[in-house]
């Protein structure tokens, strides 16, 4: 790939500042370009760096962690009331813009979001400027574990394309949890339960419809242009989604309300609602072989997931929405040599920030002439191999 002609990035990461975040007391980094390969020993903070960037986009970030768990812990300076912050400057065809998130000392609850220094009432406003998708090693087990992880993966892709999905999803989760609590108290107030179930139906159908729309778009996006990653077909496993294929949304809402009302006694005994958006699952199938991801090897599953992520990024670019940052934590693990090379070559064409991590720079050697290589050690980013510090002091 040496000497390849690369398109100019549309969105650039100009500066990143971390304060009391995870293992970073203070980090100021001004990357010279993209893609970036970040290497370092386990525990050096590579994933934390990607997580910090993921928190700037709508959603709960790469790990889905609690806000209070994101502050730095130190045996010498550990303070329960210390705040944390992530600030970044980007530029695109509109010029430079600053995005920040964090919690102030002694703040509880939701974290703050700022755009160009102004606090946002709705974090979804950031989506007009920034979005992100990612792959982590934990996702290698996506099809061997519970449906909840697969739902979170799918919902992250939906939020990146349709930020309002986060509000519908949160409202649906609140209503579902409230109904569970009411049923647990043996309450028989039908009006109260009906109001909660109405919210579950309205927000739940909207949530499932957004998932269904994304699945249809991804399935129509076509095969990987390089042919290196398998063409995948996604399918929702959800009775509500099945009805949405043939009935209008309002009719499906009425059906779901009726089903929830009829299932009150059964749900009270089970301790949770047995129908709704929180029960959705999805399957992923290799179109060429017909094999489902759940039956495939770890390497095949990883290839299918990367294919979906790349298709999603291409789709967002084609729709004129904000193309996402790609945050790829250990992306080469479980891939064969051919797919490793294909992935690295494909990433050179992305015109948004692309950050990859690994313990060893050698597998990324084909990118040497076209990527920025840095190494993490004790919270300091340096030029790999040279040891030259490229982070500036606070």
UniProtKB/TrEMBL annotation:
Report if keyword Cell membrane is assigned: no
Q: Where in the cell is it found?
A: Cytoplasm
Q: Superkingdom of the source? A: Bacteria
Where do the annotations place ATP binding? 40-47
Answer yes or no on keyword DNA repair. Answer: yes
Which keywords annotate this record?
A: ATP-binding, Cytoplasm, DNA damage, DNA repair, DNA replication, DNA-binding, Nucleotide-binding, SOS response
Which family, according to UniProt? Answer: Belongs to the RecF family.
From the Swiss-Prot or TrEMBL record, give the protein name.
DNA replication and repair protein RecF
């Amino acid at each position: 790939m040496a000497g390849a002609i690369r398109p100019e990035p549309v969105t650039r990461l100009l500066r990143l500042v971390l304060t009391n975040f995870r293992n970073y007391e203070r980090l100021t980094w001004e990357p010279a370009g993209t893609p970036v390969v970040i290497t370092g020993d386990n525990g050096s903070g590579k994933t934390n760096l990607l997580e910090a960037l993921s928190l700037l986009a709508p959603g709960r970030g790469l790990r889905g962690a609690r806000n209070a768990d994101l502050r730095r812990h130190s045996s010498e300076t550990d303070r329960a009331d210390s705040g944390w912050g992530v600030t970044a400057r980007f530029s695109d065809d509109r010029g430079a813009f600053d995005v920040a998130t964090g919690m102030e000392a002694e703040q509880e609850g939701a974290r703050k979001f700022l755009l160009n220094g102004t606090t946002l009432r709705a974090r979804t406003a950031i989506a007009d400027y920034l979005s992100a998708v990612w792959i982590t090693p934990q996702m290698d087990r996506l099809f061997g574990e519970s449906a909840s992880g697969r739902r979170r993966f799918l919902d992250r892709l939906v939020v990146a394309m349709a930020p309002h999905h986060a509000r519908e999803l949160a409202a649906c989760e609140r209503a579902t949890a409230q109904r569970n609590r009411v049923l647990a108290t043996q309450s028989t107030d039908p009006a109260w339960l009906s109001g909660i179930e109405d919210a579950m139906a309205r927000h739940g159908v909207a949530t499932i419809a957004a998932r269904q729309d994304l699945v249809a778009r991804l399935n129509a996006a076509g095969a990987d242009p390089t042919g290196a990653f398998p063409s995948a077909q996604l399918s929702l496993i959800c009775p509500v989604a099945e009805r949405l294929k043939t009935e209008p949304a309002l009719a499906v809402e009425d059906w779901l309300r009726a089903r929830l009302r009829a299932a009150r006694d059964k749900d009270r005994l089970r301790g949770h609602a047995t129908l709704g958006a929180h029960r959705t699952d999805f399957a992923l199938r290799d179109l060429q072989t017909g094999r489902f991801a759940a039956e495939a090897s770890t390497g095949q599953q990883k290839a299918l997931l990367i294919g979906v992520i790349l298709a999603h990024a291409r789709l967002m670019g084609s729709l004129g929405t904000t193309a996402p940052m790609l945050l790829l934590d250990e992306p080469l693990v479980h891939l064969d040599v051919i797919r490793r090379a294909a992935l690295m070559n494909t990433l050179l064409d992305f015109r948004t920030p692309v950050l990859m991590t690994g313990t060893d720079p050698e597998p990324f050697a084909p990118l040497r002439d076209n990527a920025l290589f840095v190494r993490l050690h004790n919270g300091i980013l340096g030029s790999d191999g040279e040891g030259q510090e490229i982070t500036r002091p606070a």
